[in-house]
UniProtKB/TrEMBL annotation:
Belongs to the sigma-70 factor family. ECF subfamily. Residues 20-85, 121-169 form the RNA polymerase sigma-70 region domain. This is RNA polymerase sigma-70 factor (ECF subfamily). Keywords: DNA-binding, Sigma factor, Transcription, Transcription regulation. It holds the Pfam family Sigma70_r4. Gene3D superfamilies: 1.10.1740.10, Winged helix-like DNA-binding domain superfamily/Winged helix DNA-binding domain. NCBIfam families: sigma70-ECF. The lineage of its organism: Bacteria, Bacillati, Actinomycetota, Actinomycetes, Pseudonocardiales. It comes from Pseudonocardia parietis.
Amino acid sequence: MLPDAAEPGLNSEGGLRAAYAAHGAELYRYALRQLGDDGGAQEVVQEVFLRAWRRADAYDPSIASLRVWLFAIARNVIVDEIRRLNVRPWRRELTDEPESGRDTVGPADDALVDTWLVEEALRRLRPEHRQAIVEAYLRGRPHAEIAAEAGVPLGTIRSRVFYGLKALRLAMDEMGVEP
């Protein structure tokens, strides 16, 4: 379903239709959970695909999957929408929907997208940097224990973690993830 080298890109009608068919419904459900508003969720999906179409040349499948790239765009659009609603609170009064759930992005959905983004960024790291970061930060192991298990000096693990984090930040920036 995902456009690849043999299929038309996102900047063509066929490629955009294929991307929408593959991810549109899931993006809609994500936006609906975040905003609690059907119309708002539809607008978010439209804006996601509009931005994807406009920035199709920026999409690099070696950096992130199409799904992750679209969800990163959706997350930014939703945050923009929530900020816009908070600046103009009178807009909320025009809807019949309750305003609960609209002031913040849902923690469970936001955590899921963050997990996808971090996984994609970790895949871009060199294996030794990825292993050091996963062991130190995700598994909470001390550097000395990681060094002993890997059979390398403690300074090497510290260096791998340091440079791995720098590479992880760069990878997330390349993916268009805003802090």
